[in-house]
Amino acid sequence: MDGTLAVVRVLEVDPDLGQDLAPAALAVARPRAIARAEWLEPGRWQPFAEQWDHRGHLGLLIVDGFLTRTIQLGSRRCAELLGPGDVLRPWVRLGDYSSVPVEDGWQVLEATRLAVLDRRFAVAMAGWPEVTAAILDRMMARSGWLAFHLAVAHLRRVETRVVGARHGSLHLWEQWTLPRAARDGLLLNLTGSAPAWAGRQICTLHDAAVFDRPEAYAPLFRGWYRWLFRRLARTAVAINTVSAFSRARLVDRLGVPGKRINVIHNGGDHLLHVQASPGYLASVGLVGRRFVLAVGSENVTKNFGAVIEAMAELAAADVFLVIAGGRRGAVFAAAAAKAETSARVIRLGPVGDAELKALYSAAIALVFASSYEGFGLPPLEAMSCGCPVLASSATAVPEVCGDAALYVDPDSPPDIARRLGQIMADDGLRADLVVRGRARLRQFTWQAAAARLQAQLQAQAARLDTAA
User: Fold this and answer.
1) Which residues share a beta bridge with 6?
2) Residue 275 lies in a domain
3) What is the count of structural domains for the chain?
4) Is the C-alpha dihedral spanning 361, 363, 369, 372 positive or negative?
5) At a CB cut-off of 8 Å and minimum separation 6, what does 338 contact?
6) Do residues 118 and 196 share a domain?
7) Are 145 and 20 in a shared domain?
8) What CATH number has the domain bearing residue 332?
9) Are the beta carbons of 420 and 310 closer than 8 angstroms?
10) Does one domain contain both 130 and 37?
11) How far apart are CA 289 and CA 95, in angstroms?
12) Are 187 and 202 in contact (CB under 8 A)?
């Protein structure tokens, strides 16, 4: 290992590792969480050739930089991209635990700094097992992704590759690098965007909001996606969307027949196996406080202004509105700032899954009063955590929530306030909504979504075979 001796203050460069510590404990642990730093230069890396004592060694934490790991399992190959926050134990040979020949190779893409979490670091952190647990969680998460990638590598017609470099525009990568890499196959796009000039591709358009609610988006973003959606409607092999509502709106806005757009509902069960962050509520001052939760990006369609107005009308002055979600100025137009200075409104900004589950589990209810949704994932997330849902009666939300939510008129702050008062005062109503929510969630699983997508891909593969 090429190295320049230095140190890394681990809880400063990666504060998420200390997120479960109480503030006082974190203040003591932070100056003691010091690890030796090592640098890797770009090029091939052979960690098995390195000699160091890894007894009691937690692993190597990537602080800066990126590297890839390529795994050859029999005749199949898959690649893993690793970057800041990932924890490695490269001295563990996969072949030692497999009856099938396994080879792996490492490539450093750019100068990479590692924090060596060795025995000395482990001993220094012995008084704060939460830090060690967070490191182990990182490794377990990587193991899950690695198992997924290896499984994908065994699917017919599928191989995994790292395409393009880290530096440069993500938009340029999507529009130039990606279609060139996929020119000999069928490209599946799941994120709501796609290359404009790809050959054969399946696109997922999550909604028609850039047409239906243009005021919600920045002009450049709106103009690009309107043009792109129209082009994809003409050129894509197939188009998917996430709700019957979105299909109807896309049919209307793009002028394509309904049979050309396939509905594959999102799943909502991804938080079931996430452990709620035990120290998060304390870190944001919510322990002992009663609150309703709103989740979403800072977009006018999320209708936070109406919810804030409704909170002002509530008689229960000890109930807070907690808003979780970020803002992307390049995407969304500025939201109205009315009433945002209220002391009863707590804005947390972006949160991770563990923090989000802690919020759902502690909230009186989720208030989801959006004026426009192509699907609406937060209500299903709330249902998976046993949180009652107060939901908008507009657009795709009733299609998702069914009979498992108490509905409000999103254009009426008084109606939102009345329903909030009802759900806070009625324990039986909340319990009933929790039961209905768990039943509703079973209709929206990622396994079912994957099965529908797999059937579509197999049908497209058969058509390509016939054409060839």
Assistant:
1) 37
2) no
3) 3
4) negative
5) 305, 308, 309
6) no
7) yes
8) 3.40.50.2000
9) yes
10) yes
11) 52
12) yes
Q: Which domain holds residue 376?
A: 280-444
Q: How big is the CA angle at 82 (ends 79 and 87), to the nearest 5 degrees?
A: 125
Question: Mean pLDDT, to the nearest integer, of 94-115?
Answer: 74
Q: What is the mean pLDDT of the chain?
A: 87
CATH classification at residue 76? 2.60.120.10
- The span from the CA of 207 to the CA of 397, in Å, is 13
Compute the distance between CA of residue 436 and CA of residue 192 in angstroms, rounded to an integer. Answer: 30
| DSSP assigned state of 21 | S
Distance (Å, whole) CA 397 – CA 407: 9
Tokens of 313: 């009308």
Please write down the long-range contacts of 97-104, taking CB distance under 8 Å and 24 or more positions apart: 98/73, 100/73, 100/74, 101/73, 101/74, 102/71, 102/72, 102/73, 103/71, 103/72, 104/69, 104/70, 104/71, 104/72
Residue tagged 């079912």 (tokens): 448
Question: Is residue 66 included in any domain, yes or no?
Answer: yes
Q: How many helices (H) and strands (E) does the chain have?
A: 17, 19
CB within 8 Å of 108: residues ≥ 6 apart:
40, 41, 42, 43, 44, 45, 65, 66, 67
Tell me which of 133-142, 161-170, 185-194, 328-337 is least confident: 328-337
Q: Are residues 65 and 86 in the same domain?
A: yes
Name the pTM for this structure: 0.69
Check if the beta carbon of residue 210 is closer than 8 Å to that of residue 217.
Answer: yes
Phi, psi of 207 (to 5 degrees): -165, 180
How is the beta sheet containing 261-263 ordered, strand by strand? 186-188, 200-204, 238-241, 261-263
Is there a domain that residue 172 lies in? no
Query: Is the distance from CB of 280 to CB of 299 less than 8 angstroms?
Result: no
Amino acid (1-letter code) at residue 348: L
The per-residue pLDDT for range 399-450, each reduced to its tens digit, is: 999 999 999 999 999 999 999 999 999 999 999 999 999 999 999 999 899 9
Residue 276 is encoded by which pair of tokens?
Answer: 């709620």
Please, are residues 412 and 424 in contact by the beta-carbon 8 Å criterion? Answer: no
Do the domain assignments include residue 167? no
Same domain, 21 and 72: yes
pLDDT of residue 374: 97
- Choose among 349, 382, 399, 383: nearest CA to 249: 399
